[in-house]
Structure formats: C-alpha cells, structure tokens
Design brief:
The protein is built from nine helices and 38 strands. It has a six-stranded antiparallel beta sheet with strand order 33-38-34-35-36-37. A five-stranded antiparallel beta sheet has the order 6-5-4-1-7. It has a five-stranded antiparallel beta sheet with strand order 13-12-11-8-14. Helix 1 crosses helix 3 and helix 2 runs antiparallel to helix 3. The chain starts with 19 loop residues before the first helix and ends with a strand.
Length: 540
C-alpha cells in the first residue's frame, strides 16, 4: 500500500487549514507508515486511505480526522489484543519488577517498569503475597506491588493515551549506540529480548532512533532496524530487563577488566614515565573498552579516561566476561544537578544532604519509588546511615555496571616550596586507592576508616591530627571552596548534622577518602555530597 498523498491548503493569512493538534496526529501516523513500510494493507483502514489518496482536490479536515480516527482505532485494537488482562503502571517514575514478592531483597530485582508501562495481569494477591500482582511484561514473568497498578476498563482507557510507535527487541541482546553505525566506542547501552523502546524516527534504512531515559546524559540513541533484531509497530511500553550478563557485557565492544587488587595507573603513552604521564586510575575489576594494543600495552577507554595500561594486568575474552559478571554492581546515576538525600524513604523525612550529577553511587537497596545509596560509613558509627533518594521524575537511573576509571593527574613538584609539599601529600595519599576500609583502622595498607586514613597520611609528613573527623574539623584554618588547594581536608556531616566523614582534596575537583566497606579507599568528586567544612591543616 502506498502512503496517502495528502495536500495541505493554506489561506491568504498563511495559516494552515488543519488545526495544530490534528496536523501532529497526521505526522504521527505518517511516521508509522514509514516505520512499517505501509503494513496496514488488508486491514480496515486500507480502503479509506486509498480513496483519500485518489482525490483530485485537497483533503478536508473532516476527511483527515476520519482517516486518523480509523487508523488509530485499528492500531489500538491490535495493541490491546496482545494482553489477556491489561494493567497499566501508575507511579512517579518507575517501579521494580521482581522475581519474588519481597520488597526488601535487592537480589530479586530483575527489571523495571516505568510510569505508563503495560503488563498482562496473571493474578492479584496470590496466596501468601497480599498486596502483590503476578504479571508478565517485556518477555519476563514476575511480581509488582498492586498499589501502582491500574486495571480493568480504566487501564484500557489509559492505554489510548499511551499508544505510540515502538521498536520491540527480538534478539537476545542488542546494543544501543550513540550514532547510527557500528563503531568502536559508540555503545552506550543494551537492550534485551522483549523490551520496547519508543521510536523517534528512522536513520537511513538500517537504523531507528529511539528515546532512552536510563542512560547517563543521553535522551535519544540508535538501534538496528534489521527485522531479525526488532519489530516496528504501534504499541505500549513494557518492562525493561536488568539482566546482569546482558546489561553489563553489551556495554563494551571489546571488554577489558582490571585484574589488579587495587588499581592500575592509566598513562597517556605506552610507557612508564613516573608520575608524568599518569592520566587516571583503573580500579580493581573495573571495565573498559580495549581500543588497540601496542608493545605489551592496551589502549583503553573507561569512563571519561582514555589511555594505556599494561596488557598483563587486564583480562580479555572469556576471563573478562567471567570477572565482569562476578563483579558487576547495582549503581545509581544522578540525572539532575542536585538531589535531596533523606534518612527515610519518604518525602516527609528531612533532607540531610544532597548528591550531584556526573557521579555514580553504589546502591544498598531499592524500594518502589526510592533508592538507598552507599554514601559513606563515617568514623563514628560502625554501620550505615540512611541515604534514600527518590526516583521521581527520572532523577535517578539504576543499572548494573562495572566500576570505571577515574581521572587522576598527579601533581608535579613545583618551585613553590608550599605547593611542592602539598603535591607530595596528595601523591602519597593516592597510592592507597583501592585498599580496604576498616572501621576504627589506621593502616593505609591493611585498612583504615576515613579519619584514620587522613590521620595516617598527614602523619607521614609530620602533621599530627586528632583521631576522629569531628575533632579534625576543629584543627587548622577555615577555607572556602573557591580557594581550597590540594592537601586541604574536606568534611561531611551525618543525618544528625554532626561531622562524621573526611577526605583529602587532590585537585581537579576530586577528593580521595576511605569511604565504606563496599567502596574502600576511592577517588570521588569533592562535592559527591554536600561538604560542611574545608580546613587547611598543613599550615602554609
């Protein structure tokens, strides 16, 4: 069937004959024709469309409205026929799709359902699981909370407003790319069989542009349009998989995983040149794309860092895949400039700090509508403080992933004696990145907590600090963020407002600290959460 040729007539004022809303609806339908190649032939709308395209004069608004209504009604009927008992998700952002009806176990999360996603309801309140629904969606079978579920005729009416052109993934795994081509380094995500993605349009014959909302810093991307990989049709959104192996391995074109127990230095050239050519740190079991090989060195891209690492320290092939699956972790990626952190998963709970964009946070637990983060353990309590952020309005994306490289440019010795000493302190502290966090510990090699780490680093330079962070925060001289220098201490407070955490500023907007049992000694952005004090304890 050919696409209808519809002429638009404009009056003397230059305004279109058709109202804007109807015009947009028509464009929407034309997109469907383009995507599906006129696949409506043989269905109820075919005869009407053919008669309209054969008219000599311009189409009228009423004729187009009738055609649009018939096409949409046909597509809605076809979409709803895929569901025996349709349910629609109603939430602020997304809810978890679980393999078991248990909200407190992070290991049973197998996917996510966004607001407006469709499910096929198998059973409401199954035996022993009051408040849960057994559903199917996105090729998966699992459980969701009934408090977020709309069913019956209300679901069918709601579905009418959610119908859109979508790509449904048929392949077991399919890469999502930043550009419509197969190219090293342009993989930004992955899709699993059964998932659906809303279409923006075609990009040539072989690619479609899709909307994405769970990839850091990206709102649209591309996937293959090969009929073996995707089917293109009108439909409803469904569940997205969080399958560990698919989601992690598909992110890399040629996966390399660090075999180091702590970290590997990433260098700007394939040679060891002291600290002069270090551009980053590749943590233990972190992942990256191998871009090439040169004289026993791999050129890798990991996070925002591209450089060279010794090939003998990086796993590839089957070994890399095994390490990736064994060491992938659930991470939260912040999609807004700042986000309130609360001690309880409720908006009535007071926000006690904020977290920032461009930082990945390890996830302790996920509740529907909330994520609990691993911020840091502090040094005054051998436990975790409540750190919950809302997933409302897509402020946070949650995904499985590997640790990635962090930028690190060691400070070179300067002519200024004071800066030379500060540079030495920073370079010494960063030697221990990747080592363990141990509450109450002061050993840089065998484990320290945050204040034990700063105390031991400074002691190496004859700077003596009190044992705990709240006392360290009273030493030295107050500094504002605009004038802080490498070697200054940055302090953070717990939910009670009391200082309980400290790190060392290393320059380039970064801090090194002993964070928690999960993270160990790490490098983070200096404002990964809101600092409460900055102190110069060096005395220059």
């Amino acid at each position: 069937m050919k696409i209808p040729r519809i002429r638009f007539r404009f009056g003397g004022t230059g305004r279109p004959l058709l109202p804007a809303s109807l015009f947009l609806t028509l464009l929407f339908l034309i997109l469907l024709f383009l995507v599906r190649g006129g696949a409506l032939s043989g269905r109820g709308a075919g005869k009407e469309a053919g008669s309209l395209s054969s008219r000599e004069g311009p189409a009228t608004a009423s004729e187009i409205k009738r055609l649009s209504g018939q096409l949409l009604a046909e597509e809605m009927k076809q979409a709803l026929s895929n569901y025996q008992n349709l349910g629609i998700i109603q939430c602020a952002s997304y809810i978890n799709f679980r393999s078991k009806p248990n909200q407190t176990d992070i290991t049973n999360i197998m996917g996510m359902l966004k607001d407006g996603a469709a499910v096929d309801i198998e059973e409401i309140d199954p035996e022993g699981a009051q408040g849960w629904a057994h559903v199917r969606s996105g090729g998966m079978d699992g459980y969701i909370s009934t408090s977020f579920l709309l069913g019956g005729e209300e679901a069918k009416e709601k579905a009418k407003t959610l119908l859109a052109p979508r790509a449904k993934v048929l392949a077991d795994k399919l890469r999502i790319r930043s550009t419509p081509e197969i190219s090293d380094g342009n993989t930004v995500g992955s899709a699993a069989a059964g998932e659906t993605y809303q279409l923006i349009g075609r990009a040539g014959r072989d690619w479609v542009e899709i909307t994405v909302d769970n990839i850091d810093g990206i709102s649209s991307a591309y996937m293959s349009a090969d009929p073996e990989n995707v089917s293109l049709d009108y439909g409803l959104d469904e569940a997205r998989s969080l399958n560990l192996k698919q989601k992690v391995l598909n992110l890399y074109d040629r996966l390399g995983v660090s075999k180091a127990g702590d970290y590997i230095n990433i260098r700007s050239s394939p040679e060891e040149d002291g600290i002069r050519n270090i551009v980053g740190k590749f943590p233990g079991f972190a992942g990256g794309n191998i871009l090439g090989e040169e004289n026993g060195w791999y050129k890798i891209q990991s996070g925002a860092v591209t450089g060279y690492v010794k090939a003998e320290l990086v796993a590839t092939g089957a070994e890399a895949e095994r390490l990736a699956v064994d060491n992938a972790q659930v991470m939260a990626i912040v999609n807004t400039n700042s986000l309130n952190v609360r001690s309880e998963p409720s908006t009535e709970s007071r926000a006690w700090t904020q977290i920032t964009k461009d930082q990945r946070y390890l996830v302790v637990n996920q509740l529907d509508g909330w994520v609990q983060l691993d911020l840091d353990s502090g040094d005054d309590d051998d436990g975790e403080q409540g750190a919950y952020v809302s997933t409302r309005d897509n402020n946070v994306s949650v995904t499985y992933g590997l640790q990635e490289a962090v930028e690190y440019h060691p400070a070179l010795e300067a002519a200024n004696a004071a800066m030379e000493r500060r540079n030495q302190i920073v370079n010494f502290a960063c030697q221990f990145v990747g080592n363990r966090y141990v509450w109450g510990g002061t050993s840089l090699t065998h484990g320290a907590d945050c204040s034990g780490f700063t105390q031991s680093v400074m002691k190496n330079f004859d700077i003596y600090l009190p044992r705990v962070s709240r006392e360290q925060a009273r030493t030295g001289v107050k500094v504002d963020s605009g004038s802080m220098r490498p070697g200054d201490l940055i302090f953070y407070a717990n939910r009670s407002g009391r200082v309980n955490h400290v790190g060392i500023y290393i320059g380039n907007g970064q801090v090194v600290n002993a964070a928690s049992r999960r993270s160990g000694i790490r490098i983070y952005r200096w404002n990964y959460r809101t600092p409460v004090a900055i102190r110069n304890v060096i005395g220059d």
